[in-house]
Specification:
The protein is α+β, with helices and mostly antiparallel strands. It folds into two domains: 87 residues, no CATH class; 146 residues, no CATH class. It contains eleven helices and ten strands. A four-stranded antiparallel β-sheet has the order 5-3-7-10.
Length: 277
């Protein structure tokens, strides 16, 4: 067990060529402070926060004074003040869902490009990341496909300058997943390995890599960008609202959740999505 873990956010995910975290954070999960503070009726036993005295001293000096200022008449704040060494929301459901995983599939909640990637599970994930308890390549192939990207842009909200705001409820649970994904495993692995090779070779993150992918002047994935290239990819415009048309589109109507077939909802329910929301 570790109390000192990487803290990964959306910027790290999309900017760093290896999707590694730039920050580290102290996380005692739901550990008791020490043996004396353990539940006598249902003791959890070690590890205890006090097993890591250097980390605990930092939390005691920097976090505890702020927790003591909280309004004790509010139950959630009273609990945070009492258990000052534990996260206010330490997402136990998330870590329970991924405990047997080697890695997880994640995406930034807000981004101009909807990009999915695998990262190690043993880290603290920012609330601005959507975390899936998937470790199979078939799900990467499916979610990174142009079909799913179009679906997500259609049913998730968009932000004027920030791009898409990915919502698992609107953009994932409504998606009609195929019942057989056997052929996607090899495709996903080939795609992921090639993409990682490009980023490692060029030392460029996901955003720069996909900007180059959408740049028509770029023909060699390994070559350096042209100094004269001015092309820059921009996200697709939101679809027209119901009752309006454009030269290249027909009238669009938002999907009503109640209209999603039971079989689609069942497949989505089995997908084991976990989000830090």
């Amino acid at each position: 067990m570790l109390s000192f873990l990487p803290y990964l956010n959306g910027q790290d995910l999309n900017t760093n060529f290896d999707q590694s975290a730039n920050s580290w954070i102290i996380n005692f999960l739901d550990w008791p402070l020490n043996a004396e503070h353990d539940n006598p009726q249902k003791p959890k036993g070690p590890p205890y926060a006090s097993d890591y005295p250097d980390c605990l001293d930092i939390v005691r000096n920097k976090v505890k004074p702020e927790r003591e200022k909280l309004n004790k008449t509010v139950s959630t704040q009273r609990r945070r003040a009492k258990y000052w060494w534990i996260y206010g929301q330490h997402a136990p459901a998330l870590y329970e869902a991924i405990k047997n995983n080697f890695r997880v599939l994640i995406a930034a909640r807000v981004s101009k490009l909807l990009i999915f990637s695998f990262v190690p599970k043993n880290q603290v994930f920012s609330e601005q990341l959507v975390v899936f308890s998937f470790d199979d390549f078939c799900f990467l192939a499916l979610l990174q496909s142009s079909i799913y990207t179009s679906w997500a842009w259609e049913y998730c909200s968009t932000m004027r300058d920030a791009g898409i705001r990915f919502s698992p409820t609107d953009g994932f649970e409504t998606f009609p997943f195929p019942e057989n994904t056997d052929t996607l495993e090899t495709i996903g692995e080939t795609y992921y390995t090639h993409r990682q090779t490009i980023m490692q070779t060029r030392q460029e993150g996901l955003t720069k890599t996909y900007n180059r992918f959408h740049d028509p002047t770029q023909t060699d994935p390994i070559s350096k960008p042209s100094a004269t290239s001015t092309s820059k990819w921009t996200p697709p415009s939101p679809p027209p609202t119901a009752g309006t048309t454009s030269p290249s589109t027909t009238t669009s109507t938002k999907l009503n959740r109640a209209s999603v077939s039971p079989s689609v909802r069942a497949i989505a329910a089995k997908s084991s999505i976990v989000s830090l929301s």
